[in-house]
Specification:
Number of helices: 6
Radius of gyration: 19 Å
Order of helices and strands: EEHEHEEHHEEEEEEEEHH
Structural class: alpha+beta
CATH class: Mainly Beta
CATH architecture: Sandwich
CATH superfamily: q2cbj1_9rhob like domain
Number of strands: 13
CATH topology: Jelly Rolls
Mean pLDDT: 91
Number of domains: 1
Largest sheet: 6 strands, antiparallel
Oligomer: single chain
Shape: globular
Strand content: 15-25%
Helix content: 10-25%
Low-confidence stretches: none
Length: about 280
């Protein structure tokens, strides 16, 4: 076993036998890395995808971009945009479906949020240089916080693996994060702000790297100035959270529906069928 991994064992205290999860699994991180992830809200894995593995993801996303370009860019904005956002990737290409049980991501999600998980979604954001300024404001991916907090408030947790298929640098547009902000339950970012704020840390990583973030970590994408930037967003939540409402319904004949016709119980849970008491 690699020194950068350790084993975790879970027992879910439940009288029902319908829950299916790995009672013991290898986590692709050290206990110290998980502690830092919990405190800061982010974990970086440089060059997680290399060689053919990276090329296959790049090619698959390029095919999907070409197929959906006209629909997403028919009326491009004149000043500022998020570029192109593509949804339901696992339903559209088998290359993306291979990420459903990708151990370096899934094992960390299970170690941080428990064994009963579901896929929240796999989407992509593609930004490119041009007349319009392509960047994102300060935001969070899943913000459902009551103010004031009720006595039995349950904080929603989500892990988003931001998989960068191109170098993340000043040409493609690095990302800014505020470490620890995922734990702030008394405030939210001003969605009109695009500039740097106090506490910001700028992240630049090579192509194939993954930045795992808590869904409520404050972050922003800086402008894409010189070269195209392709990013996948692979997200997981506990099974009992509803699936993401963004992007509408998946295609009725999507690949995940075909997988559900003949798969194991763990796959059903990850695709949102099961995992409840």
């Amino acid at each position: 076993m690699s020194a950068s991994r350790h084993t975790v064992s879970y027992t879910v205290l439940n009288r029902h036998e319908a829950l299916h999860y790995p009672p013991e699994f290898e986590v692709h991180a050290t206990p110290e890395e998980l502690e830092a992830f919990a405190a800061t809200g982010y974990l970086i894995r440089e060059r997680l995808f290399q060689g053919e593995a990276l090329t296959r993801l790049q090619d698959a996303l390029d095919r999907l971009e070409a197929a959906e370009w006209d629909r997403h860019r028919r009326n491009p904005p004149k000043d500022r945009s998020w570029g192109i956002i593509l949804r339901h990737l696992m339903d559209k290409d088998p290359v993306f479906l291979e990420l459903l049980k990708f151990p370096p991501v899934l094992s960390v999600c299970r170690a941080m949020m428990g064994p009963l998980l579901r896929l929240r979604g796999l989407s992509a954001r593609i930004s490119f240089p041009g007349a319009e300024r392509q960047e994102t404001n300060w935001h969070q991916h899943m913000r459902v916080i009551s103010n004031p907090l009720p006595p039995w408030f349950s904080q929603p947790h989500c892990i988003d693996a931001l998989i960068y298929l191109d170098d993340l640098d000043d040409d493609t547009g690095p990302i800014g994060i505020v470490p620890g902000s995922h734990a702030w339950l008394d405030r939210h970012p001003d969605h009109q702000v695009f500039a740097s704020i106090e506490g910001e840390q700028v992240i630049r990583v090579p192509a194939g790297s993954t930045v795992m973030v808590h869904g409520n970590l404050w972050h922003r994408g800086m402008p894409t100035l010189g070269k195209k930037r392709r990013m996948l967003i692979l997200s997981y939540t506990p099974t009992w959270l509803r699936k993401s409402p963004h992007g509408g319904s998946p295609p009725p004949d999507g690949l995940t529906q075909q997988v559900l016709e003949d798969c194991d119980e763990e796959t059903k849970e990850l695709l949102g069928i099961g995992g409840y008491s």
